[in-house]
What we know:
The protein is mainly α. The chain has a domain of 199 residues: Cytochrome C Oxidase, Chain A (Up-down Bundle). Helix content is 66%, strand content 0%. It is built from ten helices and no strands. Helix 2 packs across helix 7. 27% of the residues are buried.
Amino acid sequence: MPLFAWLNLVMAGMVLIAITPLSAAQIMLLIDRYLGGHFFDTQAGGSAVLWMHFFWIFGHPEVYVLIIPCFAFMSEIIPVFSRKPIMFTIGMNSYANSFFTLTTMAVGVPTGIKIFNWIGTMWGGRIQFKTPMLFSIGFLFQFLIAGLTGIMMAASPFDWQLSLSYFVVAHFHYVIVGGILFALFAAFYYWYPKMTGRMLSEGLGKWHFWLFLIGFHLTFDVMHVPGILGMPRRIYTYEPSRGWDTLNFVISIGAFIQALAILVFVANLIVSYFKGDKADNDPWDAWTLEWSISSPPAAYNFATVPTVGSRRPLWDEKHPEDPDSRYE
């Protein structure tokens, strides 16, 4: 099965684990509010900090519940536009796998491996800079920066100094916006032809990408600086002359540029739905089987269950005489 399916299966399993402590905390909160409980009521012997602990037991894995589907998008889109199959690392025996699993529990290691997966896939490929690929490249760079600032936050003295500051807000949004949202946009541009039978405009798509990229970096690159200067999160205003005014003005300009980019994206969705170029079954010359049926698909998807005999079934079907021609 494609990596897209496997990664979504992993994400579904993680949801079952990650949501459990949040559900428990919500039930405890309902008991406090409506049945006279005191789990989080500090004036009755409860602990508000307990709520924070419960929430973060959910919040830390929840980031990966969100990002793993985006990993799935990247593992589909990057190989297609690099004209190369996804690069895998070498296999190992069961003993080595056991040791590898134990020593790579730190979240930065497997995430770093994924980054090199995608870069290795692109390296030496005939890259096509279509809009889905542009957003995928943006995802790669920005998720790398998010990972590096996450490693910085993992150092206890650094975390103690910048906890609850705007540096944390910047890091979090580098993951959520720079990673997840860019991957979602890539997926929209990639699968929109299959869903609707119409191509999104490449011109508007590139305007969307460059505006959003510029706005993103104006906002969240700069946001790290007031965080380092001591600006706390969860405030709606602050005293003037703290040295944050100009920085926050630039951040606001970046946010408006991002909003303009979203308007371009929405306009692209609407205009293309009614007037976009007709999409054929396989506009990207892809290799997974959803591109072998009509765009949009019929209600039954496949008239007969397809037989899968390789990792690139559609490509091998299209090029039976030369299955490795994509490497040329």
